[in-house]
Design goal:
This protein is α+β, with helices and mostly antiparallel strands and about 90 residues long. The protein is built from four helices and three strands.
């Protein structure tokens, strides 16, 4: 079976330009971005996040760099209802 994919280029508006990390929570709710703002901070500090620039002392991600980063992430498949394990990984009470 083929791995599922998401096309973040189609999801994020073309006119977005720069995505400021300080607005990550708002944009995450609007567009379904993964991770929290704090996780993005950690990824940046580890050098594993998207390419970033500083604008007026704030971290921003160019849209193209963010799209490339998001498209490189693996997608986890959700389990079907009624499986032995629930979404948290624990066993269901039987």
């Amino acid at each position: 079976m083929e791995n599922p994919t998401l096309d973040w280029d189609a999801i994020l508006p073309k006119d977005l330009g720069l995505v400021f990390r300080s607005r990550w929570t708002e944009l995450s709710l609007r567009y379904g971005l993964p991770f929290s703002r704090k996780t993005m901070q950690n990824l940046d500090s580890e050098g594993r996040g998207p390419a970033a620039v500083m604008v007026a002392g704030k971290v921003a991600y160019p849209r193209a760099a963010l799209v490339a980063f998001l498209n490189s992430l693996p997608i986890k498949k959700l389990r079907k209802r009624g499986s032995k394990r629930d979404m948290r990984g624990g066993m269901k009470n039987e």
